[in-house]
Amino acid sequence: MRILRNLFLAAALFSTFPLAMTAQKASTTKPASTAAAAMTDKVDINTATADQLKAIPGIGDAYSKRIIDGRPYTAKNQLVSRGVLPQGVYDKIKDQIIANKVKK
Question: Residue 93 — φ and ψ, nearest 5°?
Fold first, then answer.
């Protein structure tokens, strides 16, 4: 009886082992996919709609209008140098935006 119980416990323990390995594998590949997603999550200040700009925390109706009216930008820091955004607001959003070159 004791042998059967030990065999049952061992079988239960080893049956969960492949699941643990799968979870470990998935967690090691996650950073690469997260980095790729982060690259595509940036909002292009040269092409974004007002709604896309307003989705950025700290950007409301007034700032989104000023960003759109000031286009095109060759660099995202022009939002500050042109007086479109104050430095504090820019510092909060600079990692979420990008200024791609406008095709003519």
Answer: -110, -5
Can you give the pTM of this predicted structure? Answer: 0.62
What 3-state class would DSSP assign to 4? helix
Contact between residue 83 and residue 89 where contact means Cβ atoms under 8 Å apart: no
Write out pLDDT tens, residues 30-82: 455 444 444 568 999 999 999 999 999 999 999 999 999 999 999 999 999 99
Backbone angles phi, psi at 15, to 5 degrees: -70, -25
Q: Helices marked H in 1-104 — which ranges? A: 2-15, 17-40, 50-54, 61-69, 78-81, 87-93
Calpha distance 89→28 (Å, rounded): 35
Q: Is the peptide bond before 57 cis (omega within 30 degrees of 0)?
A: no
Residue 28 burial class via C-beta count within 10 angstroms: exposed 0-12, middle 13-18, buried 19 and up: exposed
